[in-house]
Amino acid sequence: MPRKLRWGMVGGGEGSQIGGAHRIGASLDGHFEMVAGALDIDPQRGRAYAVRTGITEDRAYGDWQEMLGRESGLAGADRLDLVTVATPNSTHHEISRAFLRAGFHVLCEKPITTTVEDGEDLLTTARHADRILAVNYGYSGYPMVRQARAMVRDGELGRIRVVVAEFSHGSHADAADADNPRVRWRYDPAQAGVSSVLADTGLHALHLACFVIGQRVRRVSADFVSTVEGRVLEDDAMVSLRFTGGAAGRLWASAVAVGQQHGLALRVFGERGGLRWSQEQPNQLYWTPLNEPTRALERGDARLHEVARMGSRITVGHVEGMLGAFGNIYADLAETIRARKERRAPHPAAQWYPTGEDGVRTLAVVHAAARSARAGGVWVDA
Amino acid sequence: MPRKLRWGMVGGGEGSQIGGAHRIGASLDGHFEMVAGALDIDPQRGRAYAVRTGITEDRAYGDWQEMLGRESGLAGADRLDLVTVATPNSTHHEISRAFLRAGFHVLCEKPITTTVEDGEDLLTTARHADRILAVNYGYSGYPMVRQARAMVRDGELGRIRVVVAEFSHGSHADAADADNPRVRWRYDPAQAGVSSVLADTGLHALHLACFVIGQRVRRVSADFVSTVEGRVLEDDAMVSLRFTGGAAGRLWASAVAVGQQHGLALRVFGERGGLRWSQEQPNQLYWTPLNEPTRALERGDARLHEVARMGSRITVGHVEGMLGAFGNIYADLAETIRARKERRAPHPAAQWYPTGEDGVRTLAVVHAAARSARAGGVWVDA
Amino acid sequence: MPRKLRWGMVGGGEGSQIGGAHRIGASLDGHFEMVAGALDIDPQRGRAYAVRTGITEDRAYGDWQEMLGRESGLAGADRLDLVTVATPNSTHHEISRAFLRAGFHVLCEKPITTTVEDGEDLLTTARHADRILAVNYGYSGYPMVRQARAMVRDGELGRIRVVVAEFSHGSHADAADADNPRVRWRYDPAQAGVSSVLADTGLHALHLACFVIGQRVRRVSADFVSTVEGRVLEDDAMVSLRFTGGAAGRLWASAVAVGQQHGLALRVFGERGGLRWSQEQPNQLYWTPLNEPTRALERGDARLHEVARMGSRITVGHVEGMLGAFGNIYADLAETIRARKERRAPHPAAQWYPTGEDGVRTLAVVHAAARSARAGGVWVDA
Amino acid sequence: MPRKLRWGMVGGGEGSQIGGAHRIGASLDGHFEMVAGALDIDPQRGRAYAVRTGITEDRAYGDWQEMLGRESGLAGADRLDLVTVATPNSTHHEISRAFLRAGFHVLCEKPITTTVEDGEDLLTTARHADRILAVNYGYSGYPMVRQARAMVRDGELGRIRVVVAEFSHGSHADAADADNPRVRWRYDPAQAGVSSVLADTGLHALHLACFVIGQRVRRVSADFVSTVEGRVLEDDAMVSLRFTGGAAGRLWASAVAVGQQHGLALRVFGERGGLRWSQEQPNQLYWTPLNEPTRALERGDARLHEVARMGSRITVGHVEGMLGAFGNIYADLAETIRARKERRAPHPAAQWYPTGEDGVRTLAVVHAAARSARAGGVWVDA
Fold it and tell me: What is the value of pTM for the model shown?
């Protein structure tokens, strides 16, 4: 294993679950070592926590501007190889842009920005700076999701006809909890923008659909409903889709689906077969070749596509979960970054991390869906 | 058990699967005895098959007109108590109307008619004749579907927010089989009308949604796609719904979902809990009370609602399937017919058979969805 | 369909579940018409119930002796083609023997007798009378169980190495209910004999194992435990088995497995593949060819073995349950009886009903297991 | 988070899967930093690989003796806090004993030793040295397994009547692969001792049973079979058990169960309820309170026992897998080691790691089972 890459994080401080998931994901396979961070909106708390996670005091920052200033000045072995941005959504644009401009590769939490314009600006910034801009659609790191993509790419399903994606849970179903500030802001347009649940969980399901079938969304027709009193933005959304390659799509996102613990699931139907996958049982991919019995493909099986085999750490039958999926995103980034440093082509099976483009395109679909829903379900270009 | 009721069937002849299911469903609990039938479009074949199924020669008819003529003249113990119409869709209206007018109770296969106008006409006919008109949405006879309806009715889920119904299979996914006449007519507007898969399987899922939440559809926004070359009508449809009681709905029907053997499933989400049911595992109903773990309710459990207990024949843990569900529809009809004869109120838990009104309303929703789809997804009154 | 066969039943009166299941199973496909019965230990109640189920008054008997006396005198079209014995276990021998001797074919509920000696006597009686003696191991009528047997028979699994059978439920787990007379007698040697749960549910699992792998049990080593205070006979049993064809077996039966609704399941492992089936999801058979992914075989699939296809009434994806399995046992008997009448060979795929020999052999295994358990687990010949 | 503990490993070199799992598990939550290792039987390869994993050259050893010699001389901040032994089974005793004697805490891979005598010797050694000796029954680190144990301990299931454990897979089912050296040695008594599959996977299932019900095994009756030609030791084993607290047990282990990918599963039945858990779906624990519907308890649920909540890193509905379970074993060890250093009581919910005693007791059960099997199934004290 080559020398560990240097990694820093903005946001993701104490009590943040996503911060912990990034730290584990980045270090899982020994690719990244966390050496710098501005982890909290409260400078003192952020510095203290950074030190407790093993960052040295001189690189435990009070805010991202301080971090940017000092880290920009470091070079050679000290230079950060990757910065993860895991701050509140509204700050993603400003922070990611600043780090990209300063020459850092950036992995930004989803949504990449809150407006499509800001997203496009980030893409331009990254292009000009010749830096990697990735977005953390972490579920696409699951080996069996990657297996699904590889199977579609290789034509094992033929032309894709219909893709059905959903990410529906019941976390915001309790009306008695609707005024809880951690919940309420999500349904307030002033804070959350044009969409709530579709922009939150629906975005993941949408990316998964695009990722697996290898097509982009062309047009959408959407229905948003708000089912809990006092909410302005939708807590349940259905979107019909048309993709560039001719596939049709159905995308359902909900936050009031009581009894669904997580609810991310994907079904793909092509002219030669169908696939089913669910995040709650991520180690299996169910494949039905046309006119044949359904087969259970298992993570860890030696006959899977290389990209699925590479994303596995333990033998078939054992369970690998979401932290492994995050680890696979980081592993791809590590290989890509190392290849750049070493002026070589990266391993082709390590190029499946979700890009900034993916982040902006899926965001554009959500915004188009919001326009369609407001306009009564008419078809809108994405 | 009281004396068996006398039952006749139009259609459902040799080789017809639905005919066999009706015969088993009607006789399963000993409620009906088949004594008359015009079972086939070919008079000779129909008569011969009728005799082979145990009908006496004098009531084994060559066509429905002959059957109607002679049966209308019989009275007393010979008089038919119920006629099931299981002929091609386009003939449902004419045949059902004729038997209703002649004073027979009618159970008609779905769709009740091919146009809403014809459906309304049937309802009027039945009302004027004071006869029962039922439609065979047979899946609503499953005990755990009825349990779900009873739970919603009794407020155990609170106000219903969202209902998600689907009936998507892969039976018409094979492009090589698309020109098979048994498949092709379904996608030809001249033969199948305004809708294919939504009018075929989607109708069942739609009825299940309405039946369980006890609400009618008010408005729809729909997307139809035709994914196999040469098809005019849709083989995949998504419909968003608004119900009279305020619930929102999502209804997906597909005939190209390779790998889904049957695909009828229902999820109901209310302010106090959620329910999940699937026809492929019909003996379980999964219930999640808000903020509590999910529970598996089992057919045959003594703690179920009376209507669910009445629809069970064997003890918990054993499997009862679709023929039992059909049997429950017939059992309800038997009780209703007997109550009429005996001038008494029927058992209240035996009044859950799908009515002609259910058949017409759901058909109207399909037609509204077809209009919405043609109009680009705009909301249309149902 | 040929003329219906004439059928009579002893036992299975009002309130008996198994009686209802037999009536439905026998009539499901129109093979048998119930024309005679001595249904209850209480003559008056039995006669009244028989009439209510459609038996004419002259053949509604007060007890089996009366039935035997009068039915023995009938001939031609009135002669009973089959008598089902569904009385308490201790009476199976006497009643079945009497009807066999009088020249009737007999289907006896399980266990065929309470002692192996009585069982052997019945076999001899049936042989001398040249009558069919069958035992109602009804679960072997499930199409996918028959598919499993056909696959093993055809060598698709290679030599069978291990078979794992279980039938474990929690029906007798409630200590507060242990003194309920309906439960208590089962654990009293004076009433239930040498074994309780193994002789009750274990017998079905054992038969399924033998039926599917096509081998007989040679030797057993058993462990019986009684886990609820006051019970003498076992409420949980484990048996290791050796079969004539070299397979090893593991058989678990329990009545205290809280949470298992039914619990009948079978797993078969051969040198070329494995099979899994569970009664609670009977329409699927999971097949794993060696070194290949697991496949879900579905009831109703046109590619199944003929014997599995013959046992299906409705299309793939729909659910057929236990009553259909019973119906398949009766369908096999009907074909066998008709073939005898018509002096022709029966359809080879309709010869899979469980025979008296099956009933006696499996009973012998239970008795051997009881001896082994009493002797501290030593191996005992079956 | 306090300063990381220093950790070393013997064995687990390049290509070893278990080595990788230990490295991830130890570092997952930042408790341990790997600073020393003798990772390979080939000194040069082991040193090179150690350096590649981030160990400094001076602590990358050629063999364990070298490691022991130099590490014993280090003190203070350099002193190793824990040594993991992941070498071939036959070397566990010697290496663990040497490190314990030198004053190191030891986590040994399973089986802890190959003979019970060696195991007892290790326990004595650890006691004399006052060092922690743990064994890596890693599956007991799954949060829902710990939840099960907490529920039993708190009496939520009442007295335990029966526990059913199995760990049966098909990895050694292919006869064509039986002579592969990686497989063959396992069935050779000279290399593997008295038991193959029971000592390999069965040991895990056995520990899980003991761990969850909180009882030790008192007596066993076993049946071993060898189903593939040329094997001496068993590839399929069934053991009946009696526990100190009165429970009965059934333990099945197999290596020829084609189609079972992993196969570790546990069912516990008490007088007040039942539990079901399977490693292939580890985030759910199914709980059936007596006379109530089955409930699905979910990892990450705030209402779980503290020990289950502590072992979770991500929110409910996401999947955590085996590496998280390993991480929980290491987290417990870290807390125990830190408490010792800080002369305080460890957190009570962090004391559930599997101990050397657990390792020796379960090994003794396997050896007793082997004696029972050889003696024809008679009951043997464990």
Answer: 0.97
